[in-house]
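Service request form, structural biology core

Requester: graduate student, group of Dr. S.
Request type: structure prediction, single chain
Budget code: on file
Notes: please return the result as structure tokens.

Sequence provided:
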Amino acid sequence: MNSKQRMLEALKGGKPDMVPAAPCYLNLYLENFMGRYYLEQYRRRIGKQTRLSIDHDEDTNFRANAFCQALGIFEETFDWLCVLSRGSSYEWARNHYVERVGADYFFVDCRNQQRLSFKDSLSIVLSPGMGTHELPGHESADEKRSLWDLSGELSSLADVDAAISIMTTDELMSHGVFELPRQIVEDYGERYFLHTSVIAPFSNVYYVTGFAGCMMMIYDRPDLLHRIMERKMAQSMEFLKGLAKLGIHGVWIIETRASADLISPQHFIEFALPYEQALVNEIKALGMSTILYFCGDAIPRLELIRSLGVDAIALEESKKTFQINIEEIVDRVGDVACIFGNIDAIKIMAEGTPEMIEEEVKRQISAGKRARGFIAGIGSPLPPTTNPRNVDAFVRAVRRYGQL
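Core staff response, request fulfilled:
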């Protein structure tokens, strides 16, 4: 089997030739590498000029090349890749140019001459929001980083509708934001399982109200909370429809703020679960696999999560005050879904030795064989300080112990 076939077989509960290796959030780990490769292409392109207009097609190629080059830091290959789900918009390319000032390089906004140094843009230049902040309802990647309480800005359903505009898939395509994922699908889609990510509606409320704002709105304005989730889900689905048309194989659904250490069972059932179910149903209707990544203290939620009908369930590793053991995950929900491994991203992957990684992979695969399907994975994003050779050790161990 190739990587794509291996993943699809595991997700449907079949028997692939071996356990797939699919560490999560590799794009976060590779972000600085991709940023450097991307910007280096502009440095070479501008040469001795002091100013260069941005061509959207060329910019798309630069981003796709950077994605490919960054993967080259690994010696081993994985069975899935997270697609850069949107590229720059035509508007962003038209409204910006590259400027060289001595040894420094900048992206410059033609409209107000605001400058973004290449040095400052390494970590955000390839993030999902780049360029889409030119479009209605899509913020720049760095505009809303520290949210606490913005709920006071919303006092009516009309306020919510005005704050969360929805562009159709066709409108988004007309802005060019799907050209980058289109190219990645063309380059990798036959060999690898390609996935994108989406934030579950309840967790997505955070980006509108802030954390405290969302928690207070549960009690003070549940009607507004429901409207926000409806609008954010509709907004997300238009992007997912576009990606499904391109041939993306699966969706990593991220639920970060609905765990037992944050909200009550009653509030989970009222606010989070119905929207998780609706999202899963719509994604499945598009022909894509569904993987629910549930953060926080998830064990008390597993009986309810069972009912969602997702293809796979992925949980964090043990941390803070809660324990999440792979054996318990398999015992509780392994009969209804494929299970992703949750190797500790810090203690094992970042701080551990290759020998420690191998032993943990062996242990998790042994537990995972009792599940309907099992995919070797990591519980959380890798710290940027993680040695890529440790990631290679993870893949080699999966290949060694994952024969089925």
